[in-house]
Design brief:
22 helices; binds beta-D-glucopyranose; TIM Barrel; about 750 residues; about 30% helix; alpha/beta; six-stranded mixed beta sheet; eight-stranded parallel beta sheet; Rossmann fold; 4 domains
């Protein structure tokens, strides 16, 4: 009876608290309506409830399992485990999937079961579900998957990337999930790293532009996130993408000057554009794991960048401060370090010691309650913004566009705009439909090589999990070329299979399309010891080239592959990246000229495994004996061919003398002088000739992608504040030093002088 009365009183207090938070209350002390609502709920919470909100559990914990620990199929949740997570431990968040995709129906069912369980808690706070929908709704059987980030970057088309974000958000919500652990904002400056394909490439401006575009797509434009959008989670803050050895989650030594010059700005931009959450780098930088760094998580992220959203750890990363990093002598000390550094939510992911230790630490006065309140308020604010209190389970009938034709076409278009033509000699491409084509190679007839990890399973390696109605390269080529397309595998990733047969079939063909690549893994499992195409793929290309037939090399991979030894044997080279479920069709349409390629490399393509460098390298990286220099690209950053020709004419700059507060206006006209409609990426670079910190040879400062019909011309205008030519000085402050700068678009160069 007493308990019943208490429940009624509490329900009354909670309803009054929420109802009294109207818009008029907002803003008086700088808080918004969502923060005020969060405060009102927070004021009702006890310590267990607060710590519960800070805990994120994997769905795996709740799945029914067999004796060997593998989930029972079809997947189902164990009601007692759901109770344990939601009702007993009051966990505020659930994330992820099994190692294999759920069906749409399962997603909806699981989200419903979890949210329904919150009704049996005192405050009925909804759970926030997070997932890695990093190129579409990964982990959902049959979903449309878009190009991985590296391919998205190659489109150089932020509007298109925003659309990918919108469609992904829509499909995520259709599954019941309102929180997406994406985008990766780390720069991909070392192709050895197993997660290179998850980046927007090596350049800071390209990364920040694409990062903000996809965040806008995920979150929409309103402060309240509607039922068709999700919260973005920028990751992995900071410096994760640049481990010294190239191996995942190993030590990184990145001077603060470099962190601030290259790695911090995309996060700063994302914060400015309203990103609602952030995931921390699992690794250590300069001797401190990021999860224990008060400097980066609080001083910089909160005080300097002004981030107000939720900071979530990566997988198990608090306990790993103890177990892997040896910076805490116990799990409990690790909790103390991470929470005091500024972590809001711990992806634990499958035990509740975190809660026990955090409670003890608060009671011992080692973690202040104010620190807990701060985190819980952020988490509740996010839940209010996402509308979870009003509608923890979406109206699933409202998602008619889920996985629709519209989304498939977007996927194909995105893949088409990403695919990059790197070589095309003797006009071999586009192929004519009546040409006899031999399609071969390990990656020609399989969907996994088009998608990579984070697809229908974590590592993405099981071909049978892919939607078989989607076309492989071979199938897509056959759809266009019909009987004129023949197939022979020739090699798999281990070695040659039926190469002799392939060679004799090649003799009867007009052209060979040889598909090469690698089977990517991700995180530690994706570490590589050798940077080369696996198996005998080089030998395969050589044997095919020896037939004397024209050879088109098609690469499906998440990094630039080392192809220098075989590239001269090929008439054409095409980079597909990891183009997603519609990638086979996209490639066939490019090969047959139904679409004009317009992708440009978002990274420098090294000629050799030991010449890893970036376009914005230092002068010393190319001045030493050419043959030994670190910068020896096979193809340069920003490079990519078209089936048409573009002529750049009439470059203009408004002045030649500028002060640091001025703006530079640059104009150039581009004309399509070929016969096919096409798209061109106009790229503006700037070089600071002499500076107090050795300057890079050039930096991308602006770009624009335009479409041109044959004979059409357009004038592209860039507005470049002189401040954008600055760099981080030795005192770690951004500075524009007076002196001469060279601006460059295509082959045009013009010097300007910046005064004091
Ligand atoms: C990855 C994160 C991911 C998380 C949740 C981790 O292993 O590093 O990028 O968001 O798992 O799936």
């Amino acid at each position: 009876m007493f308990v019943f009365q208490r429940k009624i009183i509490l329900f009354f207090v909670l309803s009054v608290a929420l109802a009294s938070c109207n818009i008029e209350n907002a803003g008086k002390d700088g808080s918004n309506i969502y923060e005020i609502k969060a405060d009102s709920v927070l004021s009702l919470m006890n310590l267990d409830e607060k710590i519960g909100q800070m805990t994120q559990i994997t769905i795996n914990y709740m799945l029914e399992k067999k004796e060997d620990g593998k989930p029972v199929l079809p997947f189902r949740l164990v009601p007692d485990s759901v109770k344990s997570v939601v009702t007993r431990h009051l966990s505020g968040s659930v994330f992820g999937c099994a190692r294999r995709a759920f069906t749409l129906k399962q997603w909806r069912q699981f989200v419903k079961e979890i949210q329904t369980a919150t009704k049996n808690t005192r405050l009925k706070i909804p759970v926030i579900y997070g997932v890695d929908a990093i190129h579409g709704t990964t982990f959902t059987a049959g979903a449309v998957l878009y190009p991985q980030e590296i391919g998205q970057a190659a489109t150089w088309n932020p509007q298109l990337v925003e659309k990918i974000g919108e469609a992904t958000a829509y499909d995520c919500r259709a599954t019941g999930v309102p929180w997406n652990f994406s985008p990766v904002l780390g720069l991909g400056r070392n192709p050895l790293w197993s997660r290179f394909f998850e980046t927007y490439g090596e350049d800071e401006l390209l990364t920040e532009t694409m990062g903000t575009a996809i965040i806008n797509g995920y979150q929409g434009n309103d402060e309240k996130i509607d039922g068709k959008h999700v919260a973005a989670c920028m990751k992995h803050y900071l410096g994760y993408s640049f481990p010294l050895s190239g191996k995942d989650r190993t030590q990184a030594w990145i001077p603060e000057l470099m962190l601030r010059e290259y790695f911090l700005p995309p996060f700063r931009k994302a914060v400015e554009s309203g990103a609602l959450s952030l995931m921390v780098n699992s690794g250590e930088v300069n001797g401190t794991p990021l999860h224990a760094s008060h400097y980066w998580l609080t001083d910089v992220l909160r005080d300097e960048l002004g981030f107000k959203g939720v900071v979530v750890t990566d997988f198990m990363d608090i306990i790993l401060l103890h177990k892997n990093h040896h910076i805490a002598s116990s799990y409990k000390e690790a909790v103390e370090k991470a929470i005091n550094a500024g972590v809001d939510m711990s992806m634990v992911p499958a035990d509740f010691h975190f809660q026990r230790y955090l409670k003890e630490l608060v009671n011992e006065g080692k973690v202040p309650v104010s620190r807990i309140d701060e985190s819980v308020k952020r988490i509740l604010t996010l839940k209010f913004k996402l509308g979870l209190f009003e509608k923890p389970v979406p109206d699933f009938d409202n998602y008619a566009d889920y996985n629709s034709r519209k989304h498939m076409e977007l996927g194909r278009k995105a893949a088409e705009e990403s695919i990059t033509l790197l070589k095309n000699e003797n006009g071999i491409l586009p192929l004519k439909e009546n040409m006899k084509v031999l399609v071969c190679g390990p990656t020609a007839d399989s969907l996994k090589y088009l998608n990579g990890p984070w697809s229908f399973s974590w590592q993405g390696k099981k071909e049978e999990y892919y939607p078989q109605r989607k076309n492989t390269i071979r199938e897509a080529m056959e759809i266009v070329g019909g009987q004129n397309v023949a197939y022979c595998q020739a090699a798999d990733l281990d070695g040659l299979t039926d190469i002799d047969k392939a060679v004799s079939k090649a003799a009867m063909s007009d052209v060979i399309v040889a598909c090469v690549g690698e089977e990517h893994s991700v995180e530690e499992l994706g570490n590589i010891n050798e940077y080369r195409l696996p198996g005998k793929q080089y030998e395969m290309v050589k044997r095919l080239a020896a037939t004397g037939k024209p050879l088109v090399l098609v690469i499906t991979a998440g990094r630039p592959e080392i192809i220098t030894a075989v590239e001269p044997l090929c008439d054409a080279v095409i980079m597909c990246y990891l183009p997603g479920t519609e990638g086979g069709d996209a490639l066939a349409r490019i090969v047959y000229g139904k679409v004009n390629p317009s992708g440009k490399l978002p990274f420098t393509w090294p000629a050799f495994p030991a010449t890893i460098s970036t376009y914005d390298h230092k002068y010393t990286d190319e001045n030493i004996d050419g043959k030994q220099a670190p910068y020896q690209p096979l193809y340069e950053f920003g490079y990519g061919l078209s089936y048409t020709d573009f002529e750049y004419i009439n470059p203009e700059i408004n002045d030649s003398l500028f002060s640091p507060d001025d703006t530079i206006y640059v104009k150039i006209t581009v004309k399509n002088t070929g016969k096919m409609p096409g798209k061109e990426v106009v790229q503006l670079y700037a070089s600071d000739l002499y500076a107090s910190v050795t300057p890079p040879v050039k930096r991308l400062r602006a770009f624009d992608k335009i479409s041109l019909l044959p004979d059409e011309e357009k004038t592209v205008k860039f507005r470049l504040p002189v401040r954008n030519l600055g760099f981080i000085g030795n005192d770690l402050v951004e500075v524009v030093e007076p002196g001469v700068f060279v601006l460059q678009i295509g082959k045009f160069r013009k010097s300007i002088r910046v005064t004091e």
